[in-house]
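debug: dumping io for the single-chain case to check the tokenizer round-trip. Nothing else runs in this session.
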Amino acid sequence: MRECYGIDIMYIDNDELVSDVDVNSAKAFIKNGTIYINVDNATIDSPVHEMLHLFIGSISFSNP
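debug: decoded output
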């Protein structure tokens, strides 16, 4: 994704989560433009769900 679109995807687990993220429920999240996938909680749709946040945000920004 980085080479084509400039989007970094990082795979992390519950032990690596940052303090402002709920370990019990975080499947994936975006922070500072990077998509983080929590491999301990993620489901098959988690990466696509987070990418859609960026996509829809981009559409909204360019064509309000």
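debug: round-trip ok. Residues 46-62 form the longest helix (17 residues).
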